[in-house]
Amino acid sequence: MNKSREIVCIVCPNGCRMNVSYDENNKVTQVENASCKKGEEYAVNEIQCPKRSITSTVGVINGALPLVSVRTDKPVPKEKIAAALEEIRKIRLEAPVKFHQIIMNDLLETGAQLISTKEVARLEKM
Amino acid sequence: MIINKDLVIVGAGPAGLAAAIEAKENGIEDILVVEREPVAGGILNQCIHDGFGIVKFNEALTGPEYARKYIDEAERLQIEIATNTMVQDISSNREVTTISPEGIRTYKAGAIILAMGCRERTRGAICIPGTRPAGVFTAGVAQNLVNIRNIMVGKKIVILGSGDIGLIMARRLTLEGAEVLAVVEKLPYSSGLQRNITQCLEDFGIPLLLSHTVTNIEGHERVKSVTVAKVNEKEDPVRGTSIKFDCDTLILSVGLIPENEVALNAGIILDNVTGGASVDENLQTSIPGIFACGNVLQVHDLVDYVSAEGELAAKSAVSYIKSIKTGEAEITVKAGKGIRYVLPQTISADKDITFSMRVTIPSKRKTIVFKDGEKQLKKKFFMALNPAEMVRIELKSHELKDIRGLEVYIDE
């Protein structure tokens, strides 16, 4: 049996409403209304293994700021997001934190790295 | 003592930084960027989610990463950014008075670019009845507390307003362990981007209550509950439709206002609809030599276009400083049927112009038309039009040749 679903693309601000047809093995047979390749890819992924990038913050000790913002370097499977955030919340970094510093390798065996998205200087002691 | 500067830029957010870099690359050496925060980057610093830069850099950056590209470039070009410095006053003869821990300074600027951004509407601005407990935040303040200061704002949360910041915060607070009970929207459609409804609400099963509003806030020390009711077409609450949400926090994402107090004091004419300055195609305000760009001119949904506007303002400021004559902007651009506003408000029509506009209501399969009197100059078809999404349409100089007036409207 062929099925179809409407998927709103989140790749870019256009937010294309795509119509995706797929069979019982989740093999995508057709993507309609996608205006680019990335959108088509997203639609296929969304049927087979929906993924999202994670953005969050990590605590910094002795930093000029108490938090450093972080993200995964690629999207991770949606069902692992809650567990990934549990892990991320446990981390404490000692300042300074560099820009795009690798904070964790292979987050929950997703193959994604957790990297910082800003730098946090060490707090100068008075 | 008055310090001379070729160009003074107010604000080191995405608009101001892009303007500074563009001006420097076009040969203006003596630039000062004034920033009231301790660091440059503006609101991007607290927007830790991704999706910035897709138009400009073809990649989905987080806010801090997008800002860093510009901060690094400004540093490389040795552009002077005065942080912790507030502009107190701008005069119509382009004197800028600033206050910082170092004291009060006055600059005489060859040209000024306004890039102050916008601020949020508050509970007071929309007059929500009820008690005045702690636990009512605007979305941007909540974002600053959670993402920068490491202060969690609450455990059980209702969000009023479905603008993008509200949606982004619904996801962020959920990821941080809070329970977001509902996002409540007065209009029958969301005022945020569709992809944010998908990835911020639907992904987490957060209900979006359209045509609803908050009618009461309860609690003394802290919010205990909020009452939500359905609204009719006139946006009045309907009796007997109240739902009470037990919660400790109410977050407001109910609109942004360009922060134009110093512009008003300078005597710059503002547009009643946008809240920003009324400008010509060079982004020049009603005072010659003062230009405006970014969210202080019109509230954007994409930072990429904020940067683009900053660059255009800078090019115009550079021409002004170098005394290059531009055409008199004598043609008024009118927002017609279905269009809430269109920018620029006046044009001289001697060059290519990108018009930006917002529609009044969502619609599908419609054509936006530019006309001069009865003559149609350009038509552009859209699969969908949405008030949340700014529309940009470029007209070439030959399409604008010899026009006497210009009206933009949606063809039925």
UniProtKB/TrEMBL annotation, chain A:
Superkingdom, natural source: Bacteria
Residue stretches in coiled coil: none
SUPFAM superfamilies: CPE0013-like
InterPro entries reported in the protein's UniProt record: CPE0013-like_sf, DUF1667
Pfam families: DUF1667 (PF07892)
Protein name, as recorded: Zinc finger protein
Species annotation: Ruminiclostridium papyrosolvens DSM 2782
UniProtKB/TrEMBL annotation, chain B:
Record's keyword terms, sorted: Oxidoreductase
GO molecular function: oxidoreductase activity
Domain FAD/NAD(P)-binding: 5-302
Alphabetized SUPFAM superfamilies for the sequence: FAD/NAD(P)-binding domain
A Pfam match: Pyr_redox_2
Protein's recorded name: FAD-dependent pyridine nucleotide-disulfide oxidoreductase
